[in-house]
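Hi P.,

Sorry for the delay on this. The queue was packed all week, but I finally got your sequence through. Input first:
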Amino acid sequence: MSLPVVTDSVQSYLAEVNRYKLLTPEEERSVAERYFKTKSIEDAHTLVISNLRYVVKIALEFRNYGCRLADLIQEGNIGLMVAMKKFNPFKGFRLITYATWWIKSFIQDFILKTKGLVRHDTRDLKKKLFYRNPSELTSNAGEESAGGEDSAVFFDDLSLNAAVSENGATHMELLRDEGPGPVEAISAKQTSALVKREVTDALACLNEKERVVIENRVMSDEPESLQGLGDRLGLTRERVRQIESQALKKLGRSLALMKEACLVAEPA
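Then the structure:
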């Protein structure tokens, strides 16, 4: 499908699209119904070019968001073509009525992408950006930058690799590392190894059933229920609870003895 090329000269583009004939409701319905049945490229071309001037009108509504008008028109044209492919003329309304949502959606998505805005909450950002008077964006920017929740919406993302001083230092290099230092990391690793060894030694004081109960009830990330473990071991729910209680007491005494032994072994 060949369409007029959107250039930096919007006036020349407007002059070109204004040369295309606007279809009457009856003409559009006839062409749209034929395209709906046959998917003819010629009919699709006719439907699109007859509505290009409406895309320009919609794009002008978003001219205050810091993007080139030519880019907005181009995105709107894509939205128009998508809408044309999905349009059902038997619903009783005209193509541009259906296509308006698609045209605006493609333009809004382009603005969000171009401005580098976070995409995880696109619907909320669209409400803040587009369902308000665009002229307010400039006049209210100073007020919102004072700490309002919307302030993050109207500014481009900051590259952490951007230089912040003449010596070439970047934002990334100036970020404070909140993680543990080398000494703390080694200490934490040694402590974890010691605790793991002590727990392993303490488990040696348990019999087989007690070890199974502790491993599945206490040490597991997803503890098994008393009833489920009892069914697997051939025990009642109450008996599993008793074994768990006894095993915990054994582990407590074993770990306490190990701690006392370590204190005695430490040099004065």
